[in-house]
Amino acid sequence: MRRIAALLSLLVCVSVPVHGQDGDLYFSVSPAEHSVVEGLPVRLRCEAQPSSHVRYSWKIDGQPLAPSPRRHQVEGDLYITRVNRILDSGNFVCVATHEETGYSIESSPAKIDVQWVSEASVQLQQPKLPSAIRVDSEVELRCHVDGSGDMKYEWFKNTMSVARSDRVDIKKKKLHIHRAVPEDSGMYTCLAKNEAGSSSVTESYPLIVSGNETATIKVVPRNLIAKRGEPATLHCVFEDADEVQWFFKEIGPLEPDEERMIFENGTLTIHAADQRDQGFYSCHGIRDETTVSYTVELQIAYLLNFSMAAFEPKRPTQLAIVGEDQEFQISCLEPLGLPPPKVYWRDPTGHIISDTGPVRVQDNTLIIARARMGEDDGNYTCVAENLAGETDISVQIVISTPPSIISSPESLSVMEGDSVTLTCSYSGMEPPVTHVHWLKDGTQLRESGGPTRYRVTDNHGNVTLHFKSVDLSDKGHYMCQVFTTGFPSLLSDPAVLTVEEKLKFSPQPVNKRLELGSTAKVSCKAQGTTNPTVKWVKEDEDEEFPKHVQDINGTLHFNGVLEEDKGRYTCIASNAQGSINHTISIDVVIAPKFTVQPQNPTEAIEGYPVMLHCAAEGDPKPTIQWDKDSRMNNLDNPRFEVLSNGSLYIKEVYLSDEGKYGCTAGNSGGLKREEVQLNVKAGDNYRADMDLEATDDGTMMTKTVTITLSAAAGYMVLVVGLMLYCRYRRRRRKQQYLQEQTEEKMENGDVQEEQTELKETGNKVNSTNKKKENRDSHNKSDGADTAHSQSSNQSKKSKSNYDKIAVSRSNLKELKPLGRGEFGEIYSTKYQVDSDKESLVMVKSLTNTKDETALQEFKRHLDLVHKLNHENVVKLIGLCREKEPDYMILEYTDWGDLKQFLIASRKDSNSSPTHETKQPRAPQLSVAQILSLSNQAAKGLKHLADNRLVHKDIAARNCLIASNLTIKISLPCMTKEPYQQEYTKHRNQVIPLRWLPYEAVYEDEYSTKSDVYSFSCLVWEMFHQGELPFNKLNDESVLAQLKTQTLTWKPHKAAPPALQDLQAQCWANDPRERPTFDEVVSKIGEIVVDSCL
């Protein structure tokens, strides 16, 4: 019994929940097993419930996970950017700790199965020594490679695949040659494949089968990496050879010329190696009728320049802020190059950093163990070098110190509508190291009330929050929050802002028109700190109203409006705060009333006159309008006359006059309408109507034939003119090309490539490029011009240049919102100077002046359209800088942005159930019209490229279309509304992801060639009626496919084949393979001409 009692008591204790025990904290998402190829990213997920007050950490094989640039944690999830089979092998465990109780739980372990494959090399297995290989020997070669999982092997001899035969046997890693013959000699390589991909080849194995009747090689050629512009020598020496021949890409034999030399011993020397010399070279030793060959590869050394993508973890800028006494790590990923470059770091003094000490480098990772103020800050440079030269990229390290709050804002009590300023001061570093946010009721204050609701300024540690006109919704608790990178944020003491409601009308009463004899109400409502008393007073009258008028709590009730009720009435509201009044006018009108109504139906006989009676009275006197079949202004024929009393007189009735006629009488008191059906009977022997119609038909036919013939003649003239123009342009470009070739041969200069610039020959290359740029407009569209270099010169405009385009804000009419962008609101309005004609414009406001990046981008947009003058690019009207916010005034069109037009042209665009009546659908564009718009857009973008400018955001939403089907390249960039779904936040930048190529997204390399890519996306949008590209993929999937270069664009089937080919070229992964805008305009022009023909 005692045992049972003890067991029951134990069960009771277990069943009672205890805070901080296992029942309170559990994993809703645990890390799972993953299979990943080495070098690719992986994410281990971890989430615990309840999620509040939970801190996460990770362990590997029971030890806390060491900090690394490759690994970072976002909430509970662990991200590994590049999986390493050695460093990331082990059991990963997620630890969730409750911050209040200190209780922690650990997840079940998860492993990462890393798929990998090493380099492959060929080894001789049989015989043991190469010198023992003779004719009829048994030869066995082994492929030496390591990797995960099952592997498949493939063998090559002189780059040609080796197949099984009666003498050749292949078993997995081994290649066995039975009864070897001299023709088996050559360069052998093997390729291994598994789930991680294919192995890279380090070196080929030269198999030498000696024979008495064949040439025997003594010096075997080897693969060679040569520096561009320098000599490249391939050795090949045969013994007992009648002749030694060289072949390049199976073309030959090669002969000595001014570019290469072949010596008597068989050695091949290329005087100045270049890209055109890259490829496979075969050395053939010939004796009698037997040939022995060995194939090697010549490659030109190159080195790609560093970009921001080289840093790990990824950084938005080259500025790194580290808290004092804290650890800092940043890796520098080696750029692509041949041979693979070596990477090292230099400190701010220019010395190479060693692998020991408080500041050291390990595996290309810069480590600062404990950041020291005044010692460890400065510019650190990562350098990569190989045979082609060197490239570098710097990161500026700033050591931050903790901030402190000097004074907190003070509580205030103000009246609604007053201006208010809250102030707090702090001690800290300059932005962006230290910055301040204001909190209202614990939530970060955001601009939601328009550009002038409030303004935040930070003047060397004195931060102010200024309300120009405080509102009732602004009352609450305010704190300033100080952020310094590397340290926890600080909060000031809260200040309470109390807003007293002022006495005001809500809403303010307005003038009224009351119908004579009707029952009406005129309201006046007011509000204040205390409920006000509201009453009405009529001017020049006693305080007492007539009996049929009552004032009930501020509402005038008219029980039967009389003529003498018209006049001026004043509403007075009063409370303890004081009194306010407002005066309105009440007018008494008499609504239209028919005194004579048309007879319905009315009969008429063809050829005779008829009168449709209609007369009305009212005050003011009503006007009368007649219409037929509910269509206005269709009774302007001389046969119809509206008499002074309002009746409609038809002098001579035709059969076509039959229908429903409406008489509408209207004045300020309202509208009244009566309809009458006119029935017309055919008259005996009456032919006037038919004769007139026949005459009209004859005249119309003559006009139609004349217009048709004129249009045909004009069309033929246009086609012939286009053909002549295209021929002239092709001839001129051919002559220009031939002239350039001649000049290049005379100059003997090389064109600089995008991969790298050899520092030894950089000056020569640059000077050659400058000469080419001066004589070739195509180079203005070269893909090597980045957005930063293109905008730098433009952004150096002085204030005086901006003053020249200054316009007054008074020239703008009412602003109508279009959307919101990174800088602020975007509006449409009308613009008029003095008595000039009004023009439609777009207004871009700059409200985010604290963001330096946004400010620079606003200036870039301004510089982009400043001084540009092209019919297919929007014009800059001016800049309003009288007061904040600044306004950029741009040209606008009557049909607005192309995206909305394309969406409106869809067949399903009016299917919304909220619309009772469908709006007219925009006309759907034909293929010919899309070609015309594409041609115009390309011309506008060519103009940008010719001025060395980059757009960065080419899409239908950023193009304007007019009713005459002309297109203009614009820059609204409405990233927040209404096109926020078309933009993605990537690396702290808002980008149009689905319209950008790889180099723009992952290398921040914007150029004219990236604009060419986006232009092809714009053409795709026009064919797909504004559809979102890759609408079935989320942003993460698009980013992943773009990174692996598996994102595939498909032109529309309705596009002409030539245009589809052009789009495919524009979407090339390599920017150098994309055409320039010169070529795009030329090719689309040819497509337009062909489609016309």
From TrEMBL:
Residues 739-803 are annotated as: Disordered. The keyword S-adenosyl-L-methionine does not apply. SMART domains: IG, IGc2, IGv. The chain crosses the membrane at residues 705-726. GO terms for cellular component: cell-cell junction; plasma membrane. Its main location: membrane. Residues 1-20 form the signal peptide. It is a single-pass type I membrane protein. It is found in: Membrane. One of its GO terms (molecular function) is transmembrane signaling receptor activity. Keywords: Disulfide bond, Glycoprotein, Immunoglobulin domain, Kinase, Membrane, Receptor, Repeat, Signal, Transferase, Transmembrane, Transmembrane helix. Residues 770-785 have a biased composition (Basic and acidic residues). This is Inactive tyrosine-protein kinase. It comes from Temnothorax longispinosus. The lineage of its organism: Eukaryota, Metazoa, Ecdysozoa, Arthropoda, Hexapoda.
